[in-house]
Amino acid sequence: MDKITLNLMIEGGKASSGPPLGPTLAPLGVNISEIVNSINASTKEFKGMTIPVVVTVDPATKKYDIEIKTPATSQLIKKAIGIDKGRKEKGTIAGNLTIEQAVEIAKTKSQISLGLTLKSVVKEVVGTCTSLGVTVEKKSPMDVIKEIDKGIYDEKIK
Question: Which of 104, 136, 140, 153 would you call most buried, defined as having the most Cβ atoms within 10 angstroms of its Cβ?
Answer without folding.
Answer: 136
